[in-house]
Amino acid sequence: MCCVMAQTFTLRMRQDTRAALERQAEKTRVPKTALAERYVEEGLRMDAHPGIVFRDGPAGRRAGLASGPDVWEVIMVFLDEGRSVEGTAENLELSVRLVNAAVGYYADFREEIDDRIESNRKAAEEAEAAWRRRQALVSD
């Protein structure tokens, strides 16, 4: 997706849809063509992976379960559980169906999810290191 040359695509849409897109683009400060492309991409992914939605947050936009945690969080537990869907479902108190939805998304977008897991692990390590530095100052 990032390294593929964009091609022109003409799209007709209802006036109210276009106005809503323009309002959202202005609100989020994202060019309307980039926002429309994101919505199409995410819509195609959601069609291919029922139960997956996309949400914004402090760490950026990411895939999540419609009624649960982010996909990367489920997959992190899935990998820690030795790739056991049942173990992951039990650990996270989710249905097997929801864990399977996350695993299906991971199968198609592995690099995206692996990158998110790695970023989270680095952030956790940095936070722990900072905490230890502060504790060393307090205990002196």
Any overview of this molecule?
- This protein is mainly alpha-helical and 140 residues long.
- The chain folds into two domains: 33 residues, no CATH class; 89 residues, Orthogonal Bundle (Arc Repressor Mutant, subunit A), CATH 1.10.10.
- It is 66% helix and 6% strand.
- It is built from six helices and two strands, in the order ααββαααα.
- Strands 1-2 form a two-stranded antiparallel ribbon.
- It starts with 14 loop residues before the first helix and ends with a helix.
Topology:
Layout: H1 15-28, H2 32-48, E1 52-55, E2 62-65, H3 71-80, H4 85-92, H5 96-108, H6 110-139
Antiparallel strand pairs: 1-2
Helix pairs in contact: 3-4, 3-5, 3-6, 4-5, 5-6
Name the strands of the widest sheet in spatial order: 1-2
CATH arch. level architecture of the largest domain: Orthogonal Bundle
Shape: globular
Biggest pleated sheet: 2 strands, antiparallel
What are the secondary-structure elements, in order, as H or E?
HHEEHHHH
The gyration radius over C-alpha positions equals 19 Å
Tell me the name of the CATH homologous superfamily of the largest domain. Winged helix-like DNA-binding domain superfamily/Winged helix DNA-binding domain
Secondary structure tally: strands: 2
Class computed from helices, strands and strand pairing: mainly alpha
Structural descriptors:
140 residues; Arc Repressor Mutant, subunit A; two-stranded antiparallel ribbon; 2 strands; 6% strand; globular
Give a quick precis of the structure.
This protein is mainly α and 140 residues long.
